[in-house]
Amino acid sequence: MVKVRFEGTSAEVAELLLKFQKEYNVLSVSREYANRGKSQYVRVYADVQGATSPAPLLERLRAMLEECKERESEIDAQRNELTCGELCGEKGRELLVQRDEVVLAIDALYASICYLERNVKSATA
User: Fold this and answer.
1) Going along the chain, which residue ranges are E strands?
2) What residues make up the domain containing 55?
3) HSE-CB for 53 with a 13 A CA cutoff
4) What is residue 1's predicted lDDT score, i.e. its pLDDT?
5) Single pTM value for the model
6) Which of 7, 60, 89, 112 has its CA 20 to 30 A from that of 120?
């Protein structure tokens, strides 16, 4: 069993969990935990029962990470096309919020990947 942390807006976490549950045997899902301060983001933890090897889970998490990095690049490209005035306007702020959400997802995926890799190494040592 491995524990995976999902972090983002409530809607993003719910959507990602649904996708994740289609591919993995999710044993349990925690309640949402609000991030500190005035953050709009939440954390949810899932216990996942996989094969004896975490390799398939690591592979999927890495694929999800690449998808998030591609989305981050798309957002950056959209921001680069805006004029200075548009960057300071509603569209610029909207893109900045989207980018922040993607960066949080990237951070959470990195944390889960590092956790799994570290525990696999310690279990095989």
Assistant:
1) 2-8, 25-29, 33-34, 42-49
2) 2-124
3) 3
4) 78
5) 0.60
6) 7
